[in-house]
């Protein structure tokens, strides 16, 4: 059995997340090789919101026709980028792709359509690689339905099927707002679908909305480009023409392989938490697959069979990870990723992602916040311990990179962050 240290595990995760070295046209990590190859691997195996359709400007390795493939490859390798907050998604991806800006990400999403905005793990909004849609929809349709899903109480199984079919038909060649989609669903199903019975922030939503999660999991809908500040929905088939969800068992096996590539070694309990599924169900899934057991600091964990190569060097580098960056949300064990006072300062009720974090040598070493004023991006960093001179220089370089990605002029203040956790 392979015995690993936390340092080895951390170094490999940083590499595979393209946080050790950002991916370029021929670099980076993916489940089957380079970042640019991860798209093909996924296809073979397979709130503010992100908006805008501007073309990529400037020069460099991430600009031009090849950038969309590199961006999608990185997103595939990390199992998607959390996208409930627009600037956070753009920063998460931009940090991992050499020369990329928020415009690069927007072009990959809305123009090149190598990314798709939809619901991923835990039912949360993510940017996923479009080539991975068969895997994601096949797997998400096969997991146990979340206990909070209101379709259980507001819709019969037959009504859910009717609504999902109506959504798929209405969005086949259209981009519709919620109000427009309500009209189309009601026209295809009946007045009952429009009954305003679903609790929603002091208001009531139409009954059919209770089936939106099921429709998204099955690949009947995804997000379209915004109309101003209003969200639209469309068919994922417009991003990946002719796509069909993979069969459930094959899709689940492929998703576990992708997950372990990015976040392994990991346990079935870690996977259950990441995907928001019952632990017993996840344990049975792991037991059915060809995995290798290893130990990390003496604790058993799993990797995909044969994936036992780890870098000889330890983790290094300074990164400013935004809200809900998948590295801090998906990596375990938490007590090693958030050592000492980092757990108290950077976790919210034990939950990762609610604070942007300062990452030093792969572990959380502080929190930070950014505030935009015109073209100026004001960055405040609160380290948990005094910074060494070399770390301070690396931080200053990282702040400059954040400014480039967000297409603004950055300033840096070292001091307390007074902003609380994101909800």
Automatic annotation (TrEMBL):
Which GO MF terms are attached to this record? DNA binding
List UniProt keywords, sorted A-Z: DNA-binding
Give the source's domain of life in one word: Bacteria
Q: What is this protein called?
A: Winged helix DNA-binding domain-containing protein
Look up and give the organism this protein is from: Micromonospora echinaurantiaca
């Amino acid at each position: 059995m392979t015995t690993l240290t936390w340092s080895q595990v951390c170094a490999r995760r940083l590499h595979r997340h393209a946080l050790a070295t950002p991916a370029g046209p021929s670099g980076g990590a993916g489940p089957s090789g380079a970042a640019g190859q991860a798209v093909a691997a996924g296809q073979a195996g397979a709130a503010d919101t992100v908006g805008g359709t501007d073309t990529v400007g400037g020069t460099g390795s991430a600009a031009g026709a090849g950038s969309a493939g590199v961006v999608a490859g990185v997103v595939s390798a990390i199992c998607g980028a959390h996208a409930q907050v627009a600037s956070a998604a753009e920063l998460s991806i931009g940090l991992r792709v050499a020369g990329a800006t928020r415009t690069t990400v927007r072009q990959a999403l809305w123009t090149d359509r190598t990314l798709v905005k939809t619901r991923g793990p835990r039912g949360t909004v993510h940017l996923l690689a479009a080539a991975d849609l068969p895997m994601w929809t096949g797997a998400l349709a096969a997991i146990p339905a979340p206990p909070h899903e209101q379709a259980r109480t507001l819709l019969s199984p037959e009504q859910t099927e009717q609504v999902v079919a109506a959504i798929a038909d209405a969005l086949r060649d259209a981009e519709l707002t919620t109000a427009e989609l309500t009209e189309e669903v009601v026209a295809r199903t009946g007045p009952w679908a429009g009954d305003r019975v679903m609790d929603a922030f002091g208001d009531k939503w139409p009954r059919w909305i209770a089936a939106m999660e099921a429709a998204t999991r099955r690949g009947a809908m995804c997000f379209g480009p915004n109309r101003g500040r209003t969200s639209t929905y469309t068919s994922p088939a417009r991003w990946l023409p002719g796509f069909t969800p993979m069969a459930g068992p094959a899709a689940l096996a492929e998703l576990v392989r992708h997950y372990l590539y990015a976040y392994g070694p990991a346990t079935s309990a870690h996977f259950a938490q990441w995907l928001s599924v019952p632990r017993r169900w996840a344990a049975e899934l792991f037991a059915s697959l060809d995995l290798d057991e290893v130990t990390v600091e003496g604790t058993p964990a799993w990797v995909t069979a044969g994936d036992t190569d780890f870098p000889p060097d330890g983790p290094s580098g300074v990164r400013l990870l935004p809200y809900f960056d998948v590295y801090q949300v998906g990596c375990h064990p938490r007590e090693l990723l958030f050592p000492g006072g980092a757990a108290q300062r950077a976790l919210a009720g034990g939950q990762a992602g609610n604070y942007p974090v300062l990452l030093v040598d792969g572990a959380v070493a502080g929190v930070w916040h950014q505030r935009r004023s015109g073209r100026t991006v004001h960055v405040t960093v609160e380290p948990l311990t005094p910074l060494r001179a070399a770390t301070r220089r690396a931080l200053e370089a990282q702040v400059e990179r954040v400014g480039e990605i967000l297409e603004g002029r950055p300033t840096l203040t070292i001091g307390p962050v007074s902003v609380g956790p994101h909800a």
